[in-house]
Amino acid sequence: SKAEIGLIGLGTMGAALASNIADNGFDIAVWNRTSSVTDAFHANAGDLAARITPTQTLVDFVAAIAEPRAIILMVPAGQPVDDQIAALRPLLGDNDLIIDAGNANFHDTNRRAVEAGDLPFLGIGVSGGEEGARFGPSIMGGGKREYWDRVAHILSAISAKHETTACATWMGQAGAGHFVKAVHNGIEYADMQMIAEVYGIMRDGMGMDNAAIAATFAKWDQGPLKSYLIEISGKVAAAIDPATGQPMLDVIVDAAGQKGTGRWTAIEAQHLAAPIPAIEAAVVARNLSSQLETRAAGEALFGTGPRKLPHDALGLDTLEQALMVGKILCYAQGFDMISKASVEFGWDLPLPEIAKVWRAGCIIRSDMLDDMAQALGEDANRNLLFAPRFADIVKANHDALRQTVAMGALHGVALPALSSGLAYFDALRTARGTANMIQGQRDFFGAHGFARTDGGSGHHGPWGNS
Ligand code: 6PG
């Protein structure tokens, strides 16, 4: 009998996803550009091998799948996806569905949906790394609903479950799924960066060793910060390098890599005029981290700050509270961006469902997302910060964030994401800000006009002698 679905691209993610599909009882045909990879995958599939059909040519691959076909692409984002679609389409029937499950830029997915015309196409965001792909990722779908419905039973079966709810959700047309995945990654960047900043305070400001830092993250993982990223940060801090016996963290170069999704989020936020400063700061921090030589020269020229905080300047509880508030701020920014995009692109993105689909399987999964889903369910158009349950947490704890940021500033420990999160919060709670000065300047040099507090717009100076 023929396979129910096919998958192209047996790299780390593709192989894990194919195994997951077979593991859930679906017969799957697989193809990889290099046949030896296909053969090795099948040979190592153990009990799952019976449900996997390895194929050597694209023609054989297509022939092995039951019609109407559904084919998942797990190839590197960008041109390889276009090339694969071009190679595949001539072999397919008009009713056969191509599903791009890679980390595509959602603009590319929008374009591919247009290029597909009446031919079935979906772009789905898949989060959770290799382990998620193998045992249950979080899946964010985009494209025509009828195509999603065709494969929803498979995608739900292989997805992560929050209690009994499958983390596989249709987000909207065309690039909507990949857009939501991009914002997920933006939040992922900010969440990771804030954790790294707090690690910096513990290491440089408090002089804690890796074991103490690991223990602190492990403790926080039992409280309100409970999340996958806190959990793995504890494990990263605890790990020992077998080659040297040193803590792993001490042998890793402090230059962060990036494949681009966080950057896409920051760029798109600018197009949307969506304020996501903590996420942007996290992208900037990665860019700066890679300037190793400049930073070394900077330290030689300027010295570092005193770094070491006075004894008892900050407690670990204060740091935990600061991180809690920072985390809420970065999620509030991410969801605000999603709601702006929803309007701008006419997608009608389901904000509470997005929080729900992130509750399990994905990299940013955390206990807090369950509360976020509820808060967005009450009012999806309200900034998360204003939802009573989060407003209460922020009211009770923003002073901890302030103390942390102030200590970092005074002692020269860079905290870009935490401090821009704080500035966002302070701006959002200032009814009368300082943009009146900007408007005065704009009118002075360009007669751009301004609105008056006592009514009317399009007013101008006089500005005195210029
Ligand atoms: C996920 C991740 C994943 C991402 C990697 C690398 O949700 O599983 O977001 O999709 O590609 O984490 O991302 P960077 O190379 O940009 O850090």
TrEMBL record:
NADP(+) binds at residues 9-14, 32-34, 75-77, 103. This is 6-phosphogluconate dehydrogenase, decarboxylating. Homodimer. Keywords: Gluconate utilization, NADP, Oxidoreductase, Pentose shunt. It catalyses: 6-phospho-D-gluconate + NADP(+) = D-ribulose 5-phosphate + CO2 + NADPH. The active site is at 181 (proton acceptor), 188 (proton donor). Its EC number is 1.1.1.44. Signal peptide: none annotated. Belongs to the 6-phosphogluconate dehydrogenase family. The keyword NADP applies. It is an enzyme of class 1 (oxidoreductase). The keyword Oxidoreductase applies. SMART domains: 6PGD. It comes from the Bacteria. NCBIfam families: gnd, PRK09287.1. GO terms for molecular function: NADP binding; phosphogluconate dehydrogenase (decarboxylating) activity. It holds the Pfam family NAD_binding_2. Transmembrane segments: none annotated. Substrate binds at residues 103, 127-129, 184-185, 189, 259, 286, 442, 448. Catalyzes the oxidative decarboxylation of 6-phosphogluconate to ribulose 5-phosphate and CO(2), with concomitant reduction of NADP to NADPH. Pathway: Carbohydrate degradation; pentose phosphate pathway; D-ribulose 5-phosphate from D-glucose 6-phosphate (oxidative stage): step 3/3. GO terms for biological process: D-gluconate metabolic process; pentose-phosphate shunt. Residues 177-464 form the 6-phosphogluconate dehydrogenase C-terminal domain. InterPro entries: 6-PGluconate_DH-like_C_sf, 6PGD_dom2, 6PGDH_C, 6PGDH_Gnd/GntZ, 6PGDH_NADP-bd, 6PGdom_BS, NAD(P)-bd_dom_sf, Pgluconate_DH.
